[in-house]
């Protein structure tokens, strides 16, 4: 009965490849997020969707494209991966915008 | 200036000790405040929300000082299992973004 799940948990790939990370929440929340946590452990918001609508789009390279097919899912597609994309990517959800957030277990991306 | 700043620590304390640390925020319009806990190689988990009047949850006490723009977390009777990184989180309701501090590391030793 995992609340927020992400796949895959680990992703190792070569520079230049395209990859996707999937996220699903079964909490019935309206809002979902993608965060990036780099090697310095700083957690930074990338995107947020509310009822499938993009509401936060931080300064992220346009190689990163989120997609929300329904409000329980928020996927992240990354084109032309670069070394600097190596990080842990966390998906999160909240009942509404501004409420406390619940995080998925993270996807550890390593670009070689 | 970062939106949320925390003393990175580490705070090394013996079991049973009390440890406290603060977090400052730059946006005076911030409306909601939280403490999250993150264990090594795990996701952040909500520890507690922080209310204007201060609040307590077992051994954990959170305080908010709007005038000086900081929140604090105090852990009483520390347990080994309290060892983690504590993230201060601030929400400005105008844009609904949660801003995370870089975290304060606490290590409780036997």
What does this structure look like?
- The complex is a heterodimer of chains A (112) and B (110).
- Chain A has 112 residues and is an all-beta fold.
- Chain A is 0% helix and 56% strand.
- Chain A is globular, with a radius of gyration of 13 Å.
- With 110 residues, chain B is mainly beta.
- Chain B has no helices and eleven strands.
- Chain B has strands at residues 4-6, 11-14, 19-25, 32-38, 44-50, 55-57, 60-65, 70-75, 84-92, 97-100, 104-109.
- In chain B, β4 and β5 (44-50) form a beta hairpin.
- The interface between A and B is medium-sized, with 19 and 20 residues.
Strand content of chain A: over 45%
The count of β-strands of chain B is: 11
> With helices defined by DSSP (H or I, 4 residues minimum), what is the helix count of chain B?
0
Largest sheet of chain A: 7 strands, mixed
> Which runs of chain B of at least 5 residues are low in confidence (pLDDT < 50)?
none
On the 0 to 100 scale, the average pLDDT of chain B is 92
Order of helices and strands of chain B: EEEEEEEEEEE
Label the overall shape of chain A: globular
At a glance:
The complex is a heterodimer of chains A (112) and B (110). Chain A is mainly beta and 112 residues long.
Provide the fold topology:
The complex is a heterodimer of chains A (112) and B (110).
Chain A: E1 4-7, E2 10-13, E3 19-25, E4 31-37, E5 43-50, E6 53-57, E7 64-70, E8 73-78, E9 87-94, E10 102-103, E11 107-111
Parallel strand pairs in A: 2-11
Antiparallel strand pairs in A: 1-3, 3-8, 4-5, 4-9, 5-6, 7-8, 9-10, 9-11
Chain B: E1 4-6, E2 11-14, E3 19-25, E4 32-38, E5 44-50, E6 55-57, E7 60-65, E8 70-75, E9 84-92, E10 97-100, E11 104-109
């Amino acid at each position: 009965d995992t609340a927020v799940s992400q796949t895959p948990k680990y992703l190792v790939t070569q520079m230049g490849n395209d990859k996707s990370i999937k996220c699903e929440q079964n909490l019935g929340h309206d809002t979902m997020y993608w965060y990036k946590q780099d090697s310095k452990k700083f957690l930074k918001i990338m995107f947020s969707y509310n009822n499938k609508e993009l509401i936060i789009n931080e300064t992220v390279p346009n190689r990163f494209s989120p997609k929300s097919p329904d409000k329980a899912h928020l996927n992240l597609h990354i084109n032309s991966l670069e070394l600097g994309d190596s990080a842990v990517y966390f998906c999160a959800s909240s009942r509404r915008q501004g409420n406390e957030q619940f995080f998925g277990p993270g996807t550890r991306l390593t670009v070689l | 200036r970062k939106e949320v700043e925390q003393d990175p620590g580490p705070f090394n304390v013996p079991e049973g000790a009390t440890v406290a640390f603060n977090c400052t925020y730059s946006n005076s319009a911030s409306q909601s405040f939280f403490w999250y806990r993150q264990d090594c190689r795990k996701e952040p988990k909500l520890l507690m929300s922080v209310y204007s009047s201060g609040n307590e949850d077992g051994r954990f006490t959170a305080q908010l000082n709007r005038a000086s723009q900081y929140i604090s977390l105090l852990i009483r009777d520390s347990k080994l299992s309290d060892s983690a990184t504590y993230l201060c989180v601030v929400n400005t309701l105008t844009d609904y973004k949660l801003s995370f501090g870089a975290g304060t590391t606490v290590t409780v030793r036997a």
